[in-house]
Amino acid sequence: MKRRTFIKSTALGVGAAVISNPLLIKAAAGQTNINNEFPIAIASANGIRAVDKAVEMMNDGSDAIDAVIKGVNIIEADPDDMSVGYGGLPNEEGVVELDSCCMHGPTHNAGAVASLRNIKHPSQVAKLVMQRTDHVLLAGEGALRFAKAHGFKEEDLLTDKAREVWLYWKESLSNKDNWFTPGEEEKIPEEIRKHFGITGTITCLGIDKQGNISGVTTTSGLAFKIPGRVGDSPIIGAGLYVDNEVGACGSTGRGEENLKNLTCFLIVEFMRQGMTPTEACMAGVKRVVLNTKIKSLIDEKGKINYNVSYYALNKKGEFGAASIYGPHEYSININGKGELKKADFLYENKN
Ligand code: ASP
Question: By residue range, what is the domain housing residue 56?
């Protein structure tokens, strides 16, 4: 198979799958927490177990920062989530590189790690950067040494399944190299193929009983990225932002576009100006779409060929989420059991 054919048929595929009507589609009205019940945790769709853990801990008196980090640790350790931590899809050389950041509302402090290898829980290292250094972001070798100084053990994060997906990807890249392409695309097992072009992340935000807000974002980043590529997830303002007086926002999806718009910061500012979390997330989505001018991000029909999603909550305990493409869900737990709710979206993905 020719390389171009392969990329076209696997990368997201959303361009071809969307309806052409550019009108705003609303999947759900803005969600409000009318009873003002606390604690609350909101996360991306892969974060049901994270929000449950976070709310349980906040109910037991934990600071929201500890609660949300313990929540996402469950997903970081899960080999079946191939977008985060252990079992995450690797870079183009087959090495898993993780990004994470956290932000603590009451102190307006933050910590982050980027391109961290061999450490299963980058979010815990991000928290230590925040609490035990005068810095905000440590990257690569320095981040690894810092983690080891704090007793983290190096381990191989590449599971057999992630290695297999990577190998198929690598073998399919070109007919001009010495790796044989593994037959026609149709012959690639569905179990493997479904992971091509898919990325992911978990973001989790929490507001405790005192109304203090914290958040965390953690990811293995873009699958098959160039080694050293840093996405939005460890960048304060892009992958996460918290203002204890206003609210918090976390993001998943194409990091490069978040980096160019600092969208989480923008969404918190929109909430400061009076928008609800859902309205602010949708305004963030629209800003990203408006600023998409690079041809490689727009298909033949003029549609955006990537997705980004935002999740937000405010000081009143209102929450919401929005994406460019939907249907799309998010996890929410309001002082009880976590559930999935529908997020708003701009365009319908027919898949
Ligand atoms: N935001 C992540 C990154 O760009 C990937 C994702 O959430 O899909 O690294």
Answer: 35-158+198-348
| Residue 86 forms part of a structural domain | yes
CA–CA distance, 269 with 241 (Å, rounded to integer): 10
Q: Please report, for the domain that includes residue 64, its CATH number.
A: 3.60.20.30
**CA atoms within 13 Å, Cβ hemisphere of 117:** 14
Q: Is 253 in the pocket of ligand 1 (CB under 6 A)?
A: yes
pLDDT tens, position by position, 279-320:
999 999 999 999 999 999 998 888 999 999 999 999 999 999
Contact 249, 284 (CB under 8 A): yes
In a domain, 96, yes or no: yes
Any ligand 1 atom below 6 A from CB of 250? no
Q: Could you report the per-residue pLDDT of 32-53, keeping only the tens digit for each?
A: 776 778 999 999 999 999 999 9
Whole-model pTM over 0.85: yes
Tell me, in angstroms, the distance from the centre of ligand 1 to residue 34's CA. 32
Active site residue 201: yes
